[in-house]
Amino acid sequence: MYLNDHLTGSSAGVRLARRIAKRHRSTDGGPGLAELAKQIKEDQRSLRRVMRDVHVPVRRVHEVVGRIGETAGRLKPNGNLVRRSPLSDVVELETMLLGVEGKAACWRALRELAATDGRLDAPDLDRLLARADNQALMLDGLRRRRAAEVFAAELEGTAPAPVPGGPLRPAAGPRLGS
C-alpha cells in the first residue's frame, strides 16, 4: 500500500511539475523547472521499477486518484474566478516542494530496507535521494523568491510582476543537475 500511495502522489506530481514548467518556461526559472518535470517523470519510472523488484503490484486506481487530485487542486478559492492569483505560483511551488520531500522520505525508507533486502539497489536509492534533495533546494529557492515578490507587492498595495517573462528564478544555491 505504501508504495502505491507514493505512486498516487507521483502521478499528481508529474502533472503539476509539467504544468508549472510550462507556465514558467519564459522566466529565469524555466529551464530548471523543465528539467525538474523531466526528473520527476524519471523518478516515477524508478518507483515503478522498485515496485516491480519487490513484487508490489501497481494499483491503477491510485494513479487515477492522483490525476483527479492534481486537477481538483487547480480549483482553489483565490478571489479570482477568471484569472490566476499571483499567490497561485506560491501555492503550486509549495505543493511541489511537499511532494518532493515526501518522495525523499520514501527513498530514505527504502534505503534503510536495502540494508536487509537484496531486491533493492542501495546505490540507486542513494542517487534518487540526492536528486530529491537537490530538487527540494531548487523548489524552496523559487518558492521563497516568488513568495517575497507576491507578499511585498501585497503589503505595498501593488500588483506583483506577472510570471510570464517575470523574475522567477531560484535564490543562490544548487541548481538541478549539479
What does this structure look like?
This protein is mostly helical. The protein is built from five helices and no strands. Helix 1 packs antiparallel against helix 2, helix 1 packs parallel to helix 3 and helix 4 runs antiparallel to helix 5. The longest helix has 35 residues. The relative contact order is 0.16.
- Compute the number of helices: 5
User: What proportion strand?
Assistant: under 5%
Low-confidence stretches: 171-175
Radius of gyration: 17 Å
Q: Count the E strands.
A: 0
What is the multimeric organization of the chains shown? Answer: single chain
Q: Which secondary-structure class do the elements indicate?
A: mainly alpha
Share of helical residues: 55-70%
SSE topology string: HHHHH
Shape descriptor: elongated
Strand count, sense and barrel status of the largest sheet are: none
Q: Which structural traits does this protein have?
A:
mainly alpha, 178 residues, 69% helix
Overview in brief:
This protein has five helices and no strands. By secondary structure, the protein is mostly helical.
Question: Helix and strand layout, with pairings?
Answer:
Elements (H helix, E strand, L loop, with lengths): L1 H22 L6 H24 L6 H14 L13 H28 L7 H35 L22
